[in-house]
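Attaching the record inline, Q. Sequence:
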Amino acid sequence: MAKPRVLVIGDSIRLVSKAGPAGVDVVYAQKPSQFDPAVIPHCSQLLLVDYQQVPTVVALARALHEVRPFARVVTQSEAAQLVGGHLVDLLGLQGNGARTTRLLHDKSAMRALLNERGIAAVPFAVNPTREQLAEFVAAHGAAIVKPTKGSGSLGVRPVRSAEEVDEVWAWCEEFGIGDFLVEKLLVGPELSVEAFSEAGRHTVVAVTAKDTDSGVVELGHVVPAPFPAEQLDAIRDLTIDLLDAVGLQDGPSHTEMILTAEGPRIVESHCRRGGDFINDLVRMVHGVDLEEATYRLAGTGAPLADLHPARGAAAVRFLTAEPGTVVSVEGLARAQRMEGVVRAVVSVEPGSVVGELRWSEDRCGHVIVHAEDAETAVRLARKAADCIVVTTEPDPAATARPATLDGLLGAFDEVLDPFEARPAE
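Structure, as predicted:
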């Protein structure tokens, strides 16, 4: 019997390599600029194509589907979500279609839907003028400005008082933020919910606590989140209400929230597993690999067969450094030998350029720890991360990196919305 055939869009070799054990046959679509030849043994066919050029990828997918139909479209890449949902509808496949992927990719659309349905409503406005932004901050005390689309804390700026409005507005123009929304600033512990859905039935697999050190870029996570049972119940209920509202059908989801004094409030959500090695933390603690489970939907089935209550806790802590050119990296070997450490990695080396901490891609490495409880895991992860010292020297020429939204995305050959007007191929 032939294996179910899946179209995988934009994922890394680490993810694609999990398709084989799940019993599926992979047709892999990847941008030439992001292609890794090591993925070849894991695929039956390759499409080297800019999958964000929608007419091209649609023509290719249609032709291949006619010859041998796909069972599903799979992607864990944020850049491919809208294209994936479009293809699900176009080819008549089971999965998350264009409405769902659009609602989860476009923060303003999701917020409007939630507020309309009375699901943990949060005041917001889209593309305000400078005067309207000032009025919003005056009405709500503080606000957060962010692009309507995107992830990884890209282009997110708080406006904590009326005195900061002009500065933030000038930054929005300089950064080229494009379509953006302003929301009431939510205050409280940050968290995310890792869930998995099958035919519209949602299972909350884990709740992750987050640490931003009072900034906007995430610097640490721990699973399970050490919250009281009644708060966890409210968090789970809100997650399911959200997933039902957007019509999520299948696969993993990653929903970010803030636990305010009024209860949990949704920040954003995605129909993919969470990044930042959250999948590794979930697997260590709850026994489920959400990446492999995604392939099992079309392959061997029973995607959550290994799910169990939390066994211990796992934490990740990210490394940062002052902007400049790296001159030395010290302490990595020592960190790798420390108590509880599962993995310690530095992603820079002497000569690398470290930019200002503007989004997740500006971090310098990470440490993952497994321990008996969340408090211990966080403590050990911080201790190991503190052992690793990345020393830089100021170099204005080297750190003059693109300071616009398009410039940062361009380094990864991505656009936020492939359905908007683009230059011809």
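Residues 229-246 form the longest helix (18 residues). The longest strand covers residues 201-211.

More tomorrow.
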